[in-house]
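Sequence in, structure out. Go.
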Amino acid sequence: MTQLLPGKQGGGIFATLILGVIGAMLGGWLGGAIFGAEMDKFFSLSTWLCAIGGSLIVLIVWGLITGRSKKKAD
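Output:
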């Protein structure tokens, strides 16, 4: 995940995984509601892009709330 969202993540791996799943579900819901993207196929580019985008948004918001460090993780 450090390639997509660099820096130290607060909360550890389990919190990041849970937030990523929540974000993927949120991204799928928003993708279907706003863009009319089909979310019923697993191997669909729109499905993956909405899930990845949603999880990044949730992780970025969580980082802003918790004060995620801007420095690279050691």
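Check: The helical segments are 12-34, 45-66. The two ends are 14 Å apart (CA to CA).
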